[in-house]
Batch of 3 targets.
Target 1
Amino acid sequence: MIGLQIIEEILHLDVYGFGGVAANKDHAGTAFKLMDRMWPIVKGKALKHKGLNIWIYEDGHKVFAGVELEDSPESDTGLELNRIMLNKYAYYKHIGPYSLLGQSGNNMRSELTRRGFVTGLPFIEIYGHWTDDESKLETELLIALK
């Protein structure tokens, strides 16, 4: 898999949003509903953010959808904080339609296993800025390595 990188430096993400369990294993549908709860709060409270949607997949079919804020909120926003710290992870930038993200994630896992790595969770998708040209959509994929 061209472009797959192994990164052995600490990644720290503070993601504000909402988490839930994917009903009927519908991870994407659950994440969209969580995002739809998050954005009105972020916009309504005029919270400065980095503008990128982040979806985090965890054990037990848990999904968290959120955004990185520019600064830690000074008061309770009603948003949940998911603090991620990875010491070693695989990174791949998917360029193309969102409909192919699942296949890219599966390809990453297969290639990592082939190379002798043990993958874990979380699995993270960081969505780049929207463009109408699906062939140019960029999504960063990160998989924790044990």
Note: Residues 27-44 form the longest helix (18 residues).
Target 2
Amino acid sequence: MLGFIVALVLVAVFAAPLALTHRNAGGLETAYANAVVSFVSARGAGNIGQNPVAGNSQAIQDGRSAFTGSCAQCHGAAADGKGVFGQNTFPQATDLTSQAARQLSDQQMFYIIKNGLGFTGMPGYANQYSDRDIWAFVAYLRDVQQKGTKAFDAAEVSADQLMFADFQSADSPRRGAAIYFAQGCVTCHGPTGQAPEQLNFDVNSPDTVKAIRQGVAGMPRYGTDAISDDGMKDLLAYMATFPVPEEEE
């Protein structure tokens, strides 16, 4: 028994560091990982009901917006796993159009998005999105799998705009720009709030803070754990610099 315990300790000491350097998965390892994800998510999804917004066009649109802001960086605009970060993680971001992803039930996909997956780069979004929003993710991904739709492309950020963002600046709008970029707002709304259309809001209205704190359709919630009250003031100061949408004649 003592020898067995010593062997386990040696495996933990020497095998764990080697596992952290492992960056390539063969076909057998990938198949095993897919089977484990399917098994774990099926167990977790046991008591989850049907998708209440399946096929709903508004939910699909909301899911697309949320996917662009929170998922496309890893999973790619076409949900094919070819995002800018997803190909450089291990395991790589899942191709959500693959056969393995298609075989997951709506309930399994809901469970994974809400709770995340340990030992992977997949976070859980329970604190950022409501259950209805997570179901919208699922509705959108099903639409992608069936129709090959693609998330919209937000405007690119210029070098000058990146240089303007400075969390250590004494200037509130510059600190706010750093928060705006860091929290992923730029991915959906572009560097000056112009995507998918120019944002129209009143930075002095409590409704604007409420929308950021509680989230709106297709947008995550940003509690004080993500953006402090002082950080919110800086964020609003940056948003106040955005161009005012032109009124339609």
Note: Residues 55-152 form a domain with the Cytochrome Bc1 Complex; Chain D, domain 2 fold (CATH 1.10.760.10).
Target 3
Amino acid sequence: MGFRTFIFVACIWWVWRHRNLMCLNNETWSLNRISFNIQSIMKNLKMCFVVNSNVILGESHIKWNKNNHSCTILNTDGSCMGSPIRAGYGGGFRHSVGYYLSGFSGYNQGSSDIVHAKLYDIYQGLLLAKNLGIEEHVCYSDS
């Protein structure tokens, strides 16, 4: 892909994205913000598709962290978006050594309360723990 293709793709994406924000959220951005977003996505697209032997890619090691707990770990998260109201939740269980055991996700229709969404995902995790017979676990949430 050529440089012009990257510019075209980036412009189309951010113009469409801004249009949706204006129509759905009544939100407008400055031209500087749109321009910054276009330049940022152009850099990312170049890094993904342009092969350059002079570029050294950095490694990023990501691992699951049990924080020295020897029991099952439950990770949960809930989210909520404005209008139309959309709220969802999800989570998953891992064994103390990191093996995936089970997970869940769902949708709370009509809820606009982020605290409710976050607490509901923890509740769903506790129900799943009960159904799986997991008596001892640690729950992590970003709240």
Note: Residues 39 and 143 are 33 Å apart (CA to CA).
